[in-house]
Amino acid sequence: MGEAIVITSGKGGVGKTTTSANLGTALALMEKKVCLIDTDIGLRNLDVVMGLENRIIYDIIDVIIGRCALKQALIKDKRFDHLYLLPAAQTSDKSDLTTEGMEKIVAELKPEFDYIIIDCPAGIEQGYKNAVAGADKAIVVTTPEKPSVRDADRIIGLLEQEDIEPPKLIVNRIRNHMVEDGDMLEVDEIVQVLSIDLLGIVADDEQVIKASNHGEPVAFQPNTKASIAYRNIARRILGESVPLMSFEDEKGMFSRLKKFFTKSK
Amino acid sequence: MIGNKQIITIKGTREGLSLHMDDACSFEELLEELEAKLAANRIDSADQIVGVHIQLGNRYLEKEQEELLRRMITSKQRLRIESVHSEVITKQAAIEWKEEAEVKAVSRVVRSGQVLEVKGDLLLLGDVNPGGCVTATGNIFVMGNLLGIAHAGKDGDTDAVIAASYMNPTQLRIAGYISRAPDHETDGVYMECGHIDDEQQKIIIDRLQAVVRKRPGISSFERRMLNG
Q: To the nearest whole angstrom, how far is the Cα of A187 from the nearest Cα of chain B?
């Protein structure tokens, strides 16, 4: 029996879809059977990030209103045989997606897959409720900015009322130089305010944007910072204990010495 | 019927008249006697209005009965009712009173968009995050970080205080007073307490020890009872 994990954030644009795509890919890289579900009806883009847009025939609304079987709507990934995507509808009526419909789909997928990753739309309205309906676990994505942390806090409060495990946190798009200068919130500070377990941290990496544009999740790349971060998170989801990676840029001996002396002042 | 025992005894005190009403007779008898007493002691209309304290003893009055009594007294004479005191209250009123007088311990994080309301004092074991709000009719004690809004003395108790292990709130409200965080970023303070300063007539934050000195009754049961 698989596990359904919803990726949510409250605020838009913090990287829910990117995180969904990359965690799905990273889990698939570890030989897990994974199904991604895009629940952002009308604004679907998980298929774009995965590079599967041209393969869509049926979508989640078609499944719910019975225009096709669930198996027909699932799109097999072009890189893995055990990674699938259930795309969101682009033009159908939003209100056709209900919590009951969502629960049914997830229940049907669970025996077939190890992990079901649900990409949640921004906001706390019906779309959010649908996405959370079938989930067993939740991952909250935030960036090190106040508005994003505030919304994450709000969404954690709402998730606590659901019948799911306490949510875990991913801090996305960390720019180390800004944190060092005090212009960005520190991860410790965010974790302290939100008081939930930290699942992972992801650096703000240009490669992520490049990869999204090419429809190839960054988790595929062997050694960019973001891809390692996503693969580490996937390993933690599988239960391994992986230390958080350091963001310190590789600097020369001189600058490290300089730092040492400025600290000791 | 009642013999010589007087149903209503009138005493003059420094605070005005004190009307002691027998609590063994029926309410009708009481009203009858009161009417007679009021008619007997006619007071000149030029006289000053006198304050009256009514002592009901072990009698409980319904709202309508009390209204009737008040109307009778104030219409017949130049009297003003200062207080109506009864030794008994209903069970429901007692339960409400007890609720107001309790310290409610809650352990959770009050997150953005959440509101935690209690009657009486609030002891929160956890944080109030930015965007979160806690209110109490009494004091608020936060064993954690107070970063959101706290409203103590919500029903108007200006003696209420707000204390927190770490305080960097968006707003502090006590009774009808509101103070907000400064526009520049601040570091917050540890183990301090917000209260209304009588001279400045605004909310100020001081060390916990200093506030305890100003509000010696802060933790006493009597204070909470009287607030009820």
A: 16
The complex's ipTM? Answer: 0.78
Six-digit token string for A18: 């990117």
Cβ within 8 Å of residue A151, ≥6 positions away: A9, A10, A11, A142, B112
Q: Is the per-residue pLDDT at A76 higher than 90?
A: yes
pLDDT digits (tens, 9 = 90+) for A246-256: 765 555 556 65
Residue range B10-26, pLDDT digits in tens: 888 887 888 888 888 88
Q: Give the integer Cα–Cα distance in Å for A105 and A69.
A: 10
Tokens, residue B148: 């959101």
Q: What does the pLDDT look like over A113-147, one tens digit per residue?
A: 999 999 999 999 999 999 999 899 999 999 999 99
Tens of pLDDT, residue by residue over B102-113, are: 899 999 999 999
Residues linked to residue A76 through DSSP beta bridges, in sequence order: A84
Q: Do B127 and A153 touch (CB under 8 A)?
A: no
Q: How far is B161 from chain A (nearest CA, A)?
A: 24
| Region of B120 on the Ramachandran plot (φ > 0 left; ψ -120 to 50 alpha; else beta) | left
Q: Does B127 touch chain A (CB under 8 A)?
A: yes
Domain boundary among B25, B59, B85: B85
Q: Is residue B90 part of a domain?
A: no
| 3-class SS string, A15-74 | CHHHHHHHHHHHHHHCCCCEEEEECCCCCCCHHHHHCCHHHCCCCHHHHHCCCCCHHHHC
- Looking at B55, B85, B115, the residue that finishes a domain is B85
In this complex, which of B109, B130, B132 lies closest to A195 when CB atoms are compared? B109
Looking only at the bridges linking them, the beta strands covering B189-197 and B16-21 are: unpaired
Q: Which of A153, A160, A195 lies nearest to residue B112, judging by beta carbons?
A: A153
- Parent domain of B148: 100-227
Residue A98 burial (10 A CB sphere; 0-12, 13-18, 19+): middle
- CA distance readout (Å), A8 to A168, A234, A241, B3, B123: 10, 16, 23, 82, 32
Do B213 and B109 belong together in one domain?
yes
How many beta carbons lie within 10 A of that of residue A237, not counting itself? 22
Question: What phi, psi does B171 have (nearest 5°)?
Answer: -145, 150
Amino acid at site A82:
H
Interface test with B, best of A160, A193, A194, A196 (most B CBs within 10 A): A193
CATH architecture of A3-263: 3-Layer(aba) Sandwich (3.40)
